[in-house]
From TrEMBL:
Record has Metal-binding as a keyword: yes
Organism of derivation: Variovorax paradoxus
Highest rank taxon of the organism: Bacteria
Annotated Pfam families: RIO1
Protein name: non-specific serine/threonine protein kinase
Keywords from the UniProt entry: ATP-binding, Kinase, Magnesium, Metal-binding, Nucleotide-binding, Serine/threonine-protein kinase, Transferase
GO MF assignments: ATP binding; metal ion binding; protein serine/threonine kinase activity
Amino acid sequence: MKAPPRLQSLVDEGLIDTVVRQLMSGKEAMVYVVRCGEETRCAKVYKEADKRSFRQAVDYTENRRVRNSRETRAMAKGTRFGRQVTEAIWQSAEVDALYRLAAAGVRVPVPYNFLEGVLLMELVTDANGDAAPRLNDVAFTREEAVQHHASLLKEVVRMLCAGVVHGDLSEFNVLLAADGPVVIDLPQAVDAAGNNHAKRMLLRDVENLRNFFGQFAPELLGTHYGDEIWHLYERGLLRVESVLTGTHARDTGPVDLGNVLREVDDAREQEAARRLRMQLPRL
Ligand SMILES: Nc1ncnc2c1ncn2[C@@H]1O[C@H](COP(=O)(O)OP(=O)(O)O)[C@@H](O)[C@H]1O
Ligand SMILES: [Mg+2]
């Protein structure tokens, strides 16, 4: 196809040879399949701020590193220059996150280049070499659901160990590649340590995974991995190898019936042991 105007400069620079086809027009970006020499890649063209939806909310931009106080003031005032700075930070945030996460061993698309609001990255493919489907486009058996849920939780932990919360993780932002799930769409990713909303965002990410895979494996619906992961993270105890149980009970909020029953069982056993020790008759 004829290169759309936003990709023309990358063609002129020789970073792209040809534009094969448009893959998607998402909420915030247009995604194209492109050829670069021998390779097929993916070009994500960010929409301009006023054409995007909700994600550039204060949660996500809080504590983003900015170069100097002039830029900070301009952003706060919302001047034209300030909006340009905000825009540049928003767009480059995804590239930053991709490099950071790839270095931490998280399976994300390999980033190749970022130029004029276009991110060139690996095209994630299925076993046939076609663009990989989103989780939402696939039906799973119970076993597959349990397995993918576990491996994505591992990725969430790996991300958090690298200091990153995805912030928009769901069945729409995970692709199913030939070798397993790949996490995409990271412009809103936040610094876990410096953002007051990080905990809420992490809990929501984990809940989205649970609710999606829970459709195929209902036993997942009673799990509380988010609370458990954050609890360990806050105490500096979270490791990539941490073994999770999914049974961490919240301090407040809905009662985990399984946990309560286990505690009742424990109490009953302790009482029975005490009676045995004291040589009291059994109840
Ligand atoms: N690296 C990639 N490989 C294959 N498909 C991709 C890739 N990146 C994005 N896509 C496709 O484009 C869609 C939109 O990309 P995404 O990064 O989620 O942007 P948006 O902000 O528009 O949701 C995805 O749902 C996916 O189908
Ligand atoms: Mg998306």
